[in-house]
Design goal:
The structure holds 2 protein chains of 2 kinds. By secondary structure, chain A is of the alpha+beta class. Helices cover 40% and strands 18% of the residues of chain A. Chain A contains 16 helices and 15 strands. In chain A, the strands form 5 sheets. Chain A has a 4-stranded antiparallel beta sheet, covered by helices on one side. Chain A has a 4-stranded antiparallel beta sheet with strand order 2-13-14-15. In chain A, helix 6 packs antiparallel against helix 13 and helix 13 runs parallel beside helix 15. The model of chain A has no long low-confidence stretch (mean pLDDT 90). Chain B has one domain. Chain B is built from 11 helices and no strands. Classes of the chains: A alpha+beta, B mainly alpha. At the A-B interface, strand 8, helix 7, helix 9 and helix 15 of A face helix 5 and helix 10 of B.
Chain lengths: 505, 306
């Protein structure tokens, strides 16, 4: 085996026995990872698993061009050379591992805590005490100078939003640097899932990020299906797609409305607020819950849709779609709106690729990244998704990507509901496979959600890794604000609309 | 005796009517958004509610913190005494009172900014810096407009500037200048009263605010004074626009007053419509718009002097 071909391929939504994953030497691992990244692979997840007193490091690479994943596995000790400088996508993953297991990546250029929690094994990489560290208590990057001033925003914000701390280094109105400190909502979800699935597991998964309940439940279900080797019935897969796209619609429409609200453009703000409610209500037709809780379950979906309900849903969406088009057209046809959005909060495509942005933020920079196209699962295999890619990387591009995706999702839902396959909506799976690794990539409305599970000899989770798109995209927000006006921060923030709790886990 | 009666009428109109304009703006915006909206009298209820609340003061603040709201109410009342309300002449008029009128608002701004800086908050400091920057650019517009009106009227007091001759002026060669003056004064009205497209009075985003961020720390009765002061300012600065657009002198003071109040209501509707159909300007664009407006007002002056 060539050292550069050491990665074990794995289809999205597949499982592989741990015995088939060779434990590479450190140099071997580094060489293979950098070679894959040089060939266009992305780091979808990177996490450590304690094995006895040692730590094993897993890297899940997404090879979009091949439509498959690649797994690398090695062992690390209390210290290992950081790869963050050579592969910036890894920087946050390395910090996360350091915070969880106290293993120090030497030479990391920005070695700071991620979520401000105690390590899982009493070994703290920063030598902090045994009490839970206070979030945002750290040395912030500072710019010195007479005319430089520092603005601290949060964790308590003026709106009813989640807590997070933002530290700006400003020269007058211009931002030179923004540092974001999160971790206020750390619930230790990954450890709650250990030795699962428990009866509470579905509910914990659905609240990893409350606005992405369906997305996270889908990823978890696909991991479970991969481990159980169960087949997803066609009707269940189609209903899952409808739920996913309704979630995308509700959030994208809400985001456009929030953008309009931030720039004081009243009509779209008012209408989109109502329309978001209509899409949430449509989700409630599927399962009785507006956020789709309790709908997606391993093996399919937990609730069927009668023919009358499906027809009524289609009819209702036709009317809502008409209003949505009206509100969006008004927004994108008003010169004062465009003047406000264009050129604001720019992220260069090279930066977006380097830090590994995903989802709307990545596509707005011109990157072809959509798990529904490159790693399709279930009904997406035949849906023929074309990623909504825009160039520009500014607030306008992020809004325009959402506009395209709203239109595409409406069409997709309608055609899926029109041709709902018959049959059961849920299949029973067998016992989960022991000593295996299963990975699922799902394109949630915000971006790519990655769930990876390792099972022990009894088939229970010995490690469960969740990567919410927000984990990767907060860095993008910090980059977007370089050199921007501080008065544009709320607008840029809204254009990313990232989850705090999805990051904090 | 007549002077006293006129002052009483002037102040009664101002003090009772001003908050209604805010209610009309809010209602107009609500109708555009497809909502029923708050009652027209909501600003009065809000003031009553705030007056019953207790005040909370930061330990870092001093008496300067209260000077802002006090000046914010006192100055528009004082300034209103020099400003004719429609065909009703101002209670006080003397040569050069227009300069006093302009710089009275400068005094109010000084105290508002000082009270914002008194809190020591970085947000309020930013708001103060923005307010002063934009005020510097708005001031020449007002002065140019008043000089244009002074040239037309050949007088130097606001009552004479906005006298009964305006109806004839519109039809004469100086009509174009008057039109430009109205546009410029409307821009100043929107800037000075922190309305869209320059500022968003309804936003909760402290980093984007100009005026609102300076009064974030006020609460209870002082905050009521801030809101009331803002309502008075809108009415006093809107009065010349209404007078220029409705130069009607009927000779009956009741009718004159009703024409003026009706004009003010229409102006409030206009502000509401502008807010409903426009997004906010990017903050860096505001100085450009203000400088452009200054050039427009200069152009109006050139047309008159020609």
């Amino acid at each position: 085996m060539s050292p550069l071909r050491a990665a074990v391929p794995l289809a999205n939504g597949g499982a592989v026995p741990l015995a088939n994953l060779p434990l590479l030497g450190r140099g071997h691992f580094t060489g293979a990872l950098l070679a894959e990244v040089a060939e266009g692979a992305r780091v979808a997840a990177c996490f450590a698993v304690p094995v006895g007193s040692a730590l094993e490091l897993y890297a899940v690479l997404a090879r979009d061009a091949h439509g498959d994943l690649a797994i690398l596995r090695t062992e690390i000790g209390g210290e290992y050379p950081s790869l963050a400088l050579r592969c910036p996508e890894l920087q946050l993953f390395e910090r996360e591992i350091a915070e969880q297991f106290g293993s120090i990546p030497t030479g990391h250029p920005w070695f700071k805590p991620v979520r401000f929690h105690r390590s899982w094994n009493e070994r703290d990489a920063w030598g902090r005490g045994l009490e839970r560290p206070q979030p945002a208590v750290q040395e912030f990057y500072r710019v010195e100078g007479e005319e430089v001033h520092e603005v601290a925003v949060g964790p308590v914000h003026a709106g009813v939003i989640e807590p997070g701390h933002f530290r700006f280094q400003c020269h007058g109105e211009q931002i030179m640097h923004l540092e974001i400190a999160l971790g206020y909502q750390h619930r230790d979800v990954e450890r709650l899932l250990l030795n699962g699935p428990h009866p509470a597991t579905p509910h914990q998964i659905e609240t990893v990020a409350g606005d992405t309940s369906i997305g996270h439940a889908s990823a978890w279900s696909q991991v479970s299906e991969a481990l159980a080797g169960s087949d997803l019935p066609a009707r269940g897969a189609a209903l899952r797609l409808v739920a996913m796209e309704l979630e995308r619609l509700a959030n994208h429409v809400g985001d456009i409305g929030a953008l309009a609200g931030d720039i004081g453009f009243l009509p779209t703000a008012a209408y989109c607020g109502r329309l978001r409610g209509d899409y949430l209500n449509a989700t409630a037709v599927l399962c009785g819950n507006r956020f789709g809780r309790g709908l997606v379950r391993p093996g399919g979906v937990a609730a069927d849709l009668s023919d009358e309900q499906a027809a009524a849903l289609r009819e209702c969406l036709v009317a809502v779609a008409r209003d949505t088009h009206g509100a969006l057209e008004l927004f994108f046809d008003t010169p004062s709106v465009l003047a406000r959005l264009e050129g604001t909060g720019h992220v260069a495509v090279e930066d977006a690729a380097a830090v590994g942005l995903v989802g709307v933020a990545a596509r707005a920079c011109g990157l072809q990244r959509d798990a529904r196209k490159h790693h399709p699962l279930g009904a997406y295999r035949t849906a023929g998704i074309e990623p909504a890619v825009k160039w520009g990387g500014d607030v306008f591009a992020r809004a325009a990507v959402r506009q395209r995706e709203i239109e595409d999702s409406l069409v997709l839902i309608d055609s899926t509901l029109a041709a709902l396959p018959s049959g059961p909506v849920r299949a029973e799976g067998g016992a989960p496979r022991p000593k295996a690794l299963a990975v699922a990539l799902v394109e949630g409305w915000r971006g790519e959600i990655v769930h990876a599970a390792l099972t022990d000899a009894a088939g229970r989770f010995s490690r469960y890794k969740i990567v919410d798109p927000s984990f990767r995209n907060w860095t993008g927000l910090a980059l977007a604000l370089r050199g921007e006006q501080i008065s544009d921060f709320p607008l840029c923030n809204k254009s990313f609309n990232l989850s705090y709790c999805g990051f904090d886990l | 005796m007549e002077m006293l009666a006129r002052t009483a009428l002037h102040l009664t109109l101002l003090l009772l009517f001003a908050p209604l304009l805010q209610g009309v703006i809010v209602r107009t915006k609500a109708l555009f958004a497809g909502r029923v909206g708050a009652p027209l009298l909501q600003p009065y209820y809000d003031l009553a509610r705030l007056l019953r609340k207790e005040c909370v003061f930061s330990r870092t603040t001093t008496w300067v913190f209260l000077a802002g709201p006090a000046a914010g109410v006192a100055v528009p009342i004082l300034a209103a005494l020099f400003m004719p309300f429609g065909a009703l002449p101002a209670p006080i008029a003397f040569t050069g009172d227009l300069l006093l009128f302009v710089y009275l608002f400068g005094v109010a701004r000084f105290f508002t900014v000082a009270s914002a800086l008194d809190t020591g908050s970085s947000f309020e400091g930013m708001g103060g810096a923005r307010e002063v920057t934009f005020a510097c650019l708005a001031e020449p517009i007002v002065l140019f407009c008043l000089i244009v009106l002074a040239c037309i009227a050949d007088a130097m007091s606001l009552t004479a500037l906005l006298g009964p001759h305006l109806a004839a002026t519109w039809r004469g060669p100086a009509g174009l200048s008057l039109g430009l003056v109205v546009v410029c004064l409307l821009v100043v009205l929107l800037v000075e009263n922190s309305r869209i497209p320059f500022d968003d009075p309804n936003t909760h985003l402290e980093l984007t605010m100009i005026h609102e961020v300076m009064v974030l720390d006020h609460s209870g009765p002082p905050f009521a004074m801030v809101l009331y002061g803002a309502a008075l300012k809108l009415m006093v600065l809107g009065a010349p626009i209404v007078r220029l657009l409705l130069p009607v002198n009927t000779g009956f003071w009741v009718v004159d007053a009703l024409v003026f109040l009706g004009g003010m209501l229409l102006l409030a509707v206009l502000v509401g419509v502008i807010e409903s159909i426009m997004a906010r300007l990017k903050l860096v664009r505001i100085p450009q718009v203000l400088i452009g407006t200054t050039m427009l007002s200069g152009f109006a002056l050139v047309l008159v002097l020609r």
